Amino acid sequence: MGKRVLLAAPRGYCAGVDRAVVAVEKALDLYGAPIYVRKQIVHNKHVVATLEARGVIFVDETTDVPEGSTVVFSAHGVSPAVHAEAAGRNLKTIDATCPLVTKVHHEVKRFAQEDLDILLIGHEGHEEVEGTAGEAPEHVQLVDGLAGIDSLQVRDESKVAWLSQTTLSVDETLQTVAALKKRFPNLMDPPSDDICYATQNRQVAIKQIAPEADLVLVVGSTNSSNSVRLVEVSKEYGAKAAYLIDYAAEVRDEWFDGVETIGVSSGASVPEILVDDLLKELERRGFSDVQTVTAMEEHLLFAMPPELRKDLKAAGK
Asked: Do 231 and 243 contact (CB within 8 A), yes or no?
């Protein structure tokens, strides 16, 4: 069939990432630099570097923000303790938490009010997990994969529920849930699926491409959970090789030996310009036949954070 590229659709920015990045850009326009952001606004090197060049200062904690300054909370969400800390330092806060992450926070609070033990499926140390668990730390136990499920202890096995990080592998999460239900037969499900639509859709697209691909290249950063999952899913579904790259310049000559078909996708925090750069690099290497593989269309949009929306309206913007 000759050298070809199978380009996944959908790919790249999801509605939550777009909302968070635009919120920081509009905050810069409205309030002027510097604008502080707790953690990375989204997990992408290029996005972070671009915003830093415009006057954004990324900090690890709100204690690193000068009193009275403006701070944006990242798309991954924060715990109530972080909100309280910011209020105590008289910080103007803009909460850019993805609404789908906020939904999981509400589920934690509801289950905690019902005095359930909550098993949160996710990756230890991930910012989203820390923020979600922080809603009711005395009720939440982290389940990071299948290891340790047999040794989980709860107060009452008839009062246990599970929730998940929004950016996990759909297949792996289902395996973990199945193992949890074997351990706790009365395990309660969340009211709706926690894994976000964008994570699921990007995995569906790459599953269609992977069986035909000699090589899959996923554009994304190593701290982006959903990007890392795309590489794993590619390998699980038949790609002969799959790699995660931030930039087109990172591709290696030896990856292309014997390769006729390349699959390309990008994580939900990746701007399309980085995919365009990769396609140009692949064209330079003789892969000029680009075929889009569309799994589904995405049309979801989220409104700006309310505190920013109010100020934009007052400023007539």
From this structure: yes
